[in-house]
Amino acid sequence: LEKMTDLVAVWEVALSDGVHKIEFEHGTTSGKRVVYVDGKEEIRKEWMFKLVGKETFNVGAAKTKATINIDAVSGFAYEYTLEINGKSLKKYMENRSKTTNTWVLSLGGTDYRVVLEKDTMDVWCNGQKLETAGEFVEDGTETHFSVGDHSCCIKAVSSGKRKEGIIHTLIVDDREIPEAVE
């Protein structure tokens, strides 16, 4: 196994199916470009004469589009920026916090990461999209699903404030789980 001597950037990207690690090697003498997603080689290019440019690839179960931009800043210094779905990583993550809720919990010694995609009401747990059952209740909706042998429910109730919108709460075995900040 060759050592990653030309590793110039590492990013962590939180998607619905999990947190993905993106690593980028850039050989500024050889022109080599290598992109790894979760330790797996996605792109390898040797002897690129143009040292600036971009590399586009997919990340995660939903094949989310990612692009690494390589820009020269001065002389032989380069800047590497990651875009997810055409937005800077920072903008993408800010937007994502508005469109998803994430909870991290431990049940019977196993760690779980539960993600609600608010636009589709899809629920993901540790990389898998779950089967859910939705129902209307007096004060909003409930989305029921199971994690292991635990019954789970995401309650959606109006905050009563227009700016806040709907509040989503995860309840596992009749216990409320605090939302995680990613």
UniProtKB/TrEMBL annotation:
GO terms for cellular component: cytoplasm. Pfam families: FAIM1. Keywords: Apoptosis, Cytoplasm. It is found in: Cytoplasm. GO terms for biological process: apoptotic process; negative regulation of extrinsic apoptotic signaling pathway via death domain receptors. Its main location: cytoplasm. Belongs to the FAIM1 family. Plays a role as an inducible effector molecule that mediates Fas resistance produced by surface Ig engagement in B cells. This is Fas apoptotic inhibitory molecule 1. It comes from Balearica regulorum gibbericeps.
